[in-house]
Amino acid sequence: MKNFTYLILLVTYSWASLLLLSYLILILIVPLPPFINDLLGHIINSIMKVFLSFILFATWLGSLIIFRDYVAKKSVLK
Amino acid sequence: MELLYLSILLSGVCFITTLILIMLSIRIFKKKNLVVVDYHKLDKRLVPKPAGPAIFIGIAFPLIFLFFYTSEVKYFAVLLSVFIVFLIGVIDDFKILSGNIKTGLTVLGALPILIFGVYEPHLLFPILGPTRLTIVYPLIVLLAIPIIVNAVNMIDVYNGTISGTTFVLSFSQLVPILLYGKQGDIIFPLLLMSSSFAFYLFNRYPSRIFAGDSGSLLLGSLFGVTAIVSRVEIPSLIAFVPAILNGFYILASIKKFIEHRSIKERPVQLNKNGLLVASKQKEAPMTLARLIIADGPMSEKEAASKIILLFVYSVSLAILTSFLIR
């Protein structure tokens, strides 16, 4: 397969996964209620939401690197 | 409807102004010896740079006119934002700034948007609709402008790629703005489209002028602020995916913000036939340009066309997504 076809696939993957990632954050993480309904509970809840979103985002970036390395190994670094 | 026709007329004025000013710039820069080597040519010809000032004047006049005509502050905020980033680019064109400083300074371009409050902290998502991001949204604006501006700068690798991609990118904002009936905002993608096209006529292979940092940064900032002010963030983000990938892959390879002139191992080299070949060195950054060239030695013209084609595809996905946003 030509590298350009891989790049088209990479853009398609990025598009679909980026939308999925946004939905995961907006539907699953943002509405998470605090475990304890006081100020500390709300602070911990906000930190946890940021942390979970960061993990998801980092996973997405990691998947882009894996995709790139796969394409590179098949072509540039062969 | 009146504003729509006026915007089309003003984008025509922008096209002609930019075209004339670029022609003048080429003459003046050649006389003043404001030229740089085109490294992707065997004869190492000298090409005038930067086209930024010509593009900026072309964009500025319509925005100033609309600000006084409508008294709407968004035109002034966009102009100010673009002007700040353009100034940073001009400084970089004449006195090379380090990667960190340049990236840091471009954050200033986001300030007019926040100070004048010309944004809505409600991202419009496909199917979901508007989402409330009152606290997070200003932070996103502060991050988005430098990311977009620098990612556009990194796309400026071959003759015609910067002008070609920004021209194509403008459709990802024009279509949703038309679709959502925001006639007052139509001027922004039209200006990006007309100035990029006027510039493309001189920047395409073989380039007669280069954008310089002033040109690439200002085109990137116009795209970025339009996404925010016109609430077309998601279509713009999707259209921008190849640029994000390119920027992220460079960062992941080098692991720091670096001025492109100081990259030691070039990702793409020129062979004795004048064709581009991908570097086999592991240390060279794995850029989009390098991955595209990996299909075999190819001419610069072909490589630039492939990059633009990748953006045509991402813009198609963006337009498709914009139909899902209500």
Kindly describe this structure.
The complex is a heterodimer of chains A (78) and B (326). Chain A has one domain (3-74). In chain A, helix 1 (3-29) runs antiparallel to helix 2. Chain A has two helices and no strands. Chain A is 81% helix and 0% strand. With 78 residues, chain A is an all-alpha fold. With 326 residues, chain B is mainly alpha-helical. Chain B has one domain (2-254, 303-322). Chain B is built from 13 helices and six strands. Chain B has helices at residues 2-31, 52-70, 73-94, 99-105, 111-115, 136-155, 161-179, 187-203, 212-229, 233-239, 241-254, 288-293, 300-322; strands at 35-37, 46-48, 122-125, 129-132, 268-270, 276-278. Chain B has a two-stranded antiparallel sheet. A two-stranded antiparallel ribbon of chain B has the order 3-4. In chain B, strands 5-6 form a two-stranded antiparallel sheet. The A-B interface holds A 2-4, 6-8, 10-12, 14-15, 18-19, 22-23, 26-27, 30, 61, 64-65, 68-69, 71-72, 75-77 and B 125-126, 128, 131, 237-238, 241-242, 244-245, 248-249, 252, 278-280, 282, 286, 288, 290-292, 294-295, 306, 309-310, 313-314, 317, 321.
Task: Give structural attributes.
heterodimer, A: 78 residues, mainly alpha, 2 helices, B: 326 residues, two-stranded antiparallel sheet, 13 helices, globular
Gyration radius of chain A, rounded: 18 Å
Helices and strands of chain A, in N-to-C order? HH
Number of E-type strands of chain B: 6
> What structural class is derived from the secondary structure elements of chain B?
mainly alpha
Largest sheet of chain B: 2 strands, antiparallel
| Chain oligomer state | heterodimer
Query: What share of residues of chain B is helical?
Result: 55-70%
Task: Provide the low-confidence segments of chain A as ranges.
Answer: none
Strand arrangement, major sheet of chain B: 1-2
List the chains of the largest interface with their residue counts.
A-B, 28 and 31 residues
Helix tally of chain B equals 13
Q: In percent, how helical is the residue content of chain A? A: over 70%
**Using DSSP, what is the number of strands of chain A?**
0
Distance between the termini of chain A: 14 Å
C-alpha end-to-end distance of chain B: 22 Å
How would you state the average pLDDT of chain A, rounded? Answer: 89
What is the percentage of strand-forming residues of chain B?
Answer: 5-15%
Estimated structural class of chain A:
mainly alpha
- Number of structural domains of chain A: 1
